[in-house]
């Protein structure tokens, strides 16, 4: 085969991962907001001797670090998209970052449990007014950040897969971090108001346990979903069924082996074997795969039915 003919049959494995994703700039904006708030709270805590401000600032620092991981994942995935060392592109960096952030989120929940349990055993004096100001400001900042993420548009570069951003584990992890912060602020405000006006001091550590339970549940869901991608787990039943429906027919075409797995947000690779009484070229079967399934790389093995 001539070199020119050989090049005609070759294709890259970038799969649009070299383009700026909708969540990238929004993550950078939220990183800036979070880091600024972190510096202000830590500085104010040191100047005014407020442990509440200092603790919230350090807590904000942990989320700034997680959001920084999310942003770096976008940048690295984009810059290495054409690197041939990655067999199916860099889409899985997205899930790797999401997994790492979910583990950090789980660690944050553990700290909440430890601190809340400690407050039950050894209650501390609370400066209600100062703590309420910190909680309200934190709620506003995190509310704005959550809105920025929630307003992220669909990624129309994901080969027609209109729900690609729902598979963006990196974006989901960043959103859960700011949502966890906002939840913590809401629960703190409720507990502080109840303690200040009704003397229900036990509600403050109790709300910490409630928040830890919710954050743990979010973290577990994200760990499970991102691990599915990292471990090349088979695609969901609906996607597999749709492939079978598109390729199998009453004319004697049957899929005897099918593997379909995620290689990035909203995009999949498939490896399948077809047995047919009247086998067609692999390109024919690839063309029958519905584009809305987001399968950007398909390897098709075709065999003639031995009993025909």
Can you put this structure into words, describing what you see?
- This protein has 308 residues and is mainly alpha-helical.
- The chain has two domains: 3-230, Alpha-lytic protease prodomain-like; 237-304, Cation efflux protein, cytoplasmic domain (Alpha-Beta Plaits), CATH 3.30.70.1350.
- 62% of the residues lie in helices and 10% in strands.
- The chain has helices at residues 3-8, 22-48, 51-79, 92-121, 128-150, 169-198, 203-230, 237-247, 282-287; strands at residues 254-264, 267-276, 295-304.
- A three-stranded mixed beta sheet has the order 1-2-3.
- Helix 9 (282-287) links the parallel strand 2 (267-276) and strand 3 (295-304).
- Helix 4 runs parallel beside helix 6 and helix 6 (169-198) packs antiparallel against helix 7.
Quick gist of this model?
The protein is mostly helical. Helices cover 62% and strands 10% of the residues.
Give me the secondary-structure topology:
Layout: H1 3-8, H2 22-48, H3 51-79, H4 92-121, H5 128-150, H6 169-198, H7 203-230, H8 237-247, E1 254-264, E2 267-276, H9 282-287, E3 295-304
Parallel strand pairs: 2-3
Antiparallel strand pairs: 1-2
């Amino acid at each position: 085969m001539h070199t020119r003919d050989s090049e005609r049959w070759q294709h890259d494995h970038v799969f649009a991962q070299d383009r700026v994703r909708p969540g990238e700039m929004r993550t950078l904006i939220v990183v800036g907001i979070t880091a600024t708030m972190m510096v202000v709270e830590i500085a104010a805590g040191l100047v005014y001797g407020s442990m509440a401000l200092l603790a919230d600032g350090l807590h904000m620092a942990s989320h700034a670090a997680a959001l920084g991981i999310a942003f770096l994942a976008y940048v690295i995935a984009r810059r290495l998209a054409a690197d041939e060392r990655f067999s199916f592109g860099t889409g899985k960096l997205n899930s790797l970052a999401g997994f790492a952030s979910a583990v950090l989120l789980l660690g944050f929940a553990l700290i909440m449990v430890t601190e809340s349990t400690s407050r039950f055993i050894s209650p501390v004096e609370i400066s209600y007014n100062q703590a309420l100001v910190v909680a309200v400001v934190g709620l506003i900042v995190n509310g704005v950040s959550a809105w920025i993420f929630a307003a992220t548009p669909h990624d129309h570069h994901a080969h027609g897969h209109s729900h690609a951003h729902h598979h963006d584990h990196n974006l989901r992890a960043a959103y859960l971090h700011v949502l966890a912060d906002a939840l913590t602020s809401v629960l703190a405000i409720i507990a502080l108001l109840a303690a200040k006006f009704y003397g229900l001091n036990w509600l403050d550590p109790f709300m910490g346990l409630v928040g830890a339970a919710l954050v743990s549940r979010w973290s577990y869901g994200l760990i499970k979903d991102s691990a599915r991608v990292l471990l090349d787990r088979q695609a969901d039943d609906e996607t597999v069924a749709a492939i079978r429906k598109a390729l199998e027919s009453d004319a004697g075409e049957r899929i005897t082996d099918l593997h379909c797995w995620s290689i990035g947000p909203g995009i999949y690779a498939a490896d399948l074997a077809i047995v047919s009484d009247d086998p067609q070229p692999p390109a024919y079967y690839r063309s029958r795969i519905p584009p809305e399934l987001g399968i950007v790389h398909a390897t098709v093995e075709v065999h003639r039915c031995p009993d025909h």
